[in-house]
Give the backbone structure.
Amino acid sequence: MERTELEKKALELEQTLGMQLSLVKKESEGFAKIGGAIILGGVVAFSAVKLLGRKKNKKTDKVLQTLEKEGLLDEEIKQKLTQRTQPGMFGRLGAILLPIAINYGKEQFFKKMNESENSPEKNVK
């Protein structure tokens, strides 16, 4: 008799584990999609910055060459032309939005975890 009870408990545990694994798979699909979208957005933003930055560098190089030909180029002017400026609007906006986005994601994650913990308890009883 004990063996059948153990087999029943083993079967119940396997079914519970199967349900938990399927739940984790469903939730991880959503996270994978969000992660993919974030990575894609990062790649697009990085490419856009690189493309726009090249144009500025080409113009700066032309100005430096012209000043050098004219004999007007000195270290101070060269430094002012090649020195990086302060972060633009996107840099400031990113610095503000990043902590907000992280906090929002954390809240959503905990909310989903609490829902998943509460839902199996209702089904088991």
Notes: Helices lie at 2-70, 75-82, 89-124.
